[in-house]
Write a structure and sequence with these properties.
The protein is α/β, with parallel strands linked by helices. It is built from five helices and twelve strands. Strand 2 and strand 3 form a beta hairpin. It holds the Pfam family FAD_binding_6.
Length: 249
């Protein structure tokens, strides 16, 4: 689940009003589990509103007694993909994530609403630095896929932090896109285990980029501080964070 940070005061409106969609009945077409704690769902959503890279969907479950729970999940699919792709991390005691990870099968029907969000979006025409932690890479996968479709992969640079490579969703796709992948619990090649640092990000940064940061609250805070400490204007840093909250999991 992702929760966008508020836009800084004084920021002007986006050049393009982000699309938004209402509730739909989606059919699950594909289910797989790319890492031990995640499930990837590909949904057919009738009459869906085409999204922008960086937006998310809400999934709502309704119990037999009428109790409802809903959670937000970032989109991994590019706008031109005929299916909507979500990656769900299985959280301890997660009402929605547990059901999606353990119960849902192809052919099942889910209530969904989206796309949602207009702050953390990439419209495909400006240079950007993408800094993700763990499952925070999901919206960046959508951005990378969008860039490939548009022939604009040169506009994006990516840095990713993960505990281990086996725990990183879309690891192969990210590395094929040239992402810098830093592992905090194991060595990676000749690089020892360690956190993402300013020297990692400096070679990726160029004036004119917008920086997008997505991950847990602690990762988002640390990565944002790194960028600002490097001299990146705070107004050029867009943050989306996830973690324990009343709407997570």
């Amino acid at each position: 689940m992702t929760e966008p940070a508020a836009a800084p005061a004084g920021m002007g409106p986006r050049r393009l009003r982000a699309p938004a969609g209402g509730w739909r009945t989606a059919t699950v077409r594909e289910v797989d589990r790319p890492t031990p704690r995640t499930v990837r769902l590909r949904l057919e959503v009738p009459d869906r509103v085409t999204h922008l890279a960086g937006q998310h969907y809400v999934v709502r479950l309704t119990a037999e007694d009428g109790y409802r729970a809903q959670r937000s999940y970032s989109l991994a699919s590019a706008p031109a993909d005929p299916l909507v792709e979500l990656l769900v991390e299985r959280l301890e005691d997660g009402e929605v994530s547990g059901y999606l990870a353990e119960v849902v099968e192809p052919g099942d029907v889910l209530e969904v609403r989206g796309p949602i969000g207009g702050w953390f979006v990439w419209e495909g025409d400006e240079p950007a630095l993408l800094v993700g932690g763990g499952t925070g890479v999901v919206p960046f996968v959508s951005m990378l896929r969008t860039a490939r479709e548009l022939g604009r992969t040169h506009l994006l640079r990516v840095a990713v932090s993960t505990r281990t490579l086996a725990e990183l969703p879309y690891a192969d796709e990210l590395r094929e896109a040239g992402a810098l992948v830093v592992t905090t619990r194991e060595a990676s090649g000749i690089r020892p285990a360690g956190r993402l640092t300013a020297p990692d990000l400096v070679p990726l940064w160029e004036p004119g980029q917008t920086a997008y940061v997505c991950g847990s609250a602690s990762f988002a805070e640390a990565a944002s501080q790194l960028l600002v400490g490097m001299g990146v204007p705070a107004a050029d840093v867009r943050v989306e964070r996830f973690g324990p909250s009343g709407t997570s999991g």
